[in-house]
Amino acid sequence: MTKETAALRDRMVTIGDIAKRAGVAPSTVSRALSNPDRVNAETREKIQKIAAELGYIPSPLARNLRMGSTGTIAVLVPDVSSPVSFQIVRGTQNQIKATGYTHVLINTEQAEDFELDVLRRLRRTADGAILGSSSLTDEQLAQLASLQPLVTFNRPTPGVSAVLIDTATAMGDAVSHLASLGHTSVTYVGGPSTSWSNAQRWQAIEAAAQKLDMSANRIGPYPGDKKSGAAAADEVLTVGSTSIIAFNDMLAIGILQRLSELGISVPADLSVVGCDDVMGADFCNPPLTTIASPIEQAGRMAVSILLDRMAAADGSAKPYTTTLPSELVVRASTGPARGPAR
């Protein structure tokens, strides 16, 4: 390798660099690399050899334009500030970056009209989209998926590919864990009423409690944020349960803080369980018993499924749904039952 070649390889090599070395016009280089049949064999081989020697990497944008592609994948989340959304974004971003596509993040703020409008406009500006906890109806999602490759997260919809996390089984495990500690009652602090996960979790809790001869009730719905945990804690205290399972960790953390303010000991007076095992759940006071979910892995898998659908340009790819397991992580926020909360 000559010094000149080494210097070129230390920066982004252009078509002009190859043209200069080959002694041909840049347009000839472009044809040789993108439409090789339009260039005579001798010139084509010379250009391709020089391109390989210089380490030329074709522009993703140019490649995408030739293929009628935007080179962009959109990821829509309902609340970009939530820990779960953050993990979804981190998983999708790492996977998308490895493919050469551009990652576009959109915060829908749980606004159905805005989400629908954005998805309609994305048909012109993105090759596909991943939806985190969509608030759209099944009919709307199915129609959109027929026009553009889509993958949903924790939202099974007929005709639409999805990645699901099975938190319901682990919720049943949480109820069994509480029963083993002597609890005879559990209150579920519900999340958003439009959430598929919320409905699944409550059904699992109710079924497990019935099998174990425990009383189970539900309060809410509450937004899945820490601020709402204070109101949820106050309502739980009127019910008299000895244990709580919250829709997610942020609600559970808010509940812990409110109970501390009221002088109610966790787990001596009340046991508390969260869901998602977000960053900081193990630093609470006390550390939070929760359901650990592979959210980043789900984000990566959603990208892989979306790419498969995008590769089937004729729309022949059938909808594909996969489910990932979750598990109960026991920490200090659950303990033996010692009578009703005061």
Helix and strand arrangement:
Layout: H1 3-9, H2 15-22, H3 26-34, H4 41-54, H5 60-66, E1 72-77, H6 83-97, E2 102-107, H7 112-125, E3 128-132, H8 138-147, E4 150-153, E5 161-166, H9 168-180, E6 185-189, H10 196-211, E7 215-219, H11 228-239, E8 243-246, H12 249-261, E9 271-273, E10 290-292, H13 295-311, E11 321-325, E12 327-329
Parallel strand pairs: 1-2, 1-3, 3-4, 4-5, 5-11, 6-7, 6-8, 8-9
Antiparallel strand pairs: 10-12
Helix pairs in contact: 2-3, 2-4, 6-13, 9-10, 11-12
Write up this protein.
There is one protein chain. The chain has 342 residues and is an alpha/beta fold. It is 45% helix and 16% strand. The strands form three sheets. A six-stranded parallel beta sheet has the order 2-1-3-4-5-11, with helices on both faces. The protein has a four-stranded parallel beta sheet with strand order 7-6-8-9, sandwiched between helices. Strands 10-12 form a two-stranded antiparallel sheet. The longest helix has 17 residues, at 295-311. The protein is elongated. It starts with a helix and ends in a 13-residue tail after the last strand. The model has no long low-confidence stretch (mean pLDDT 88).
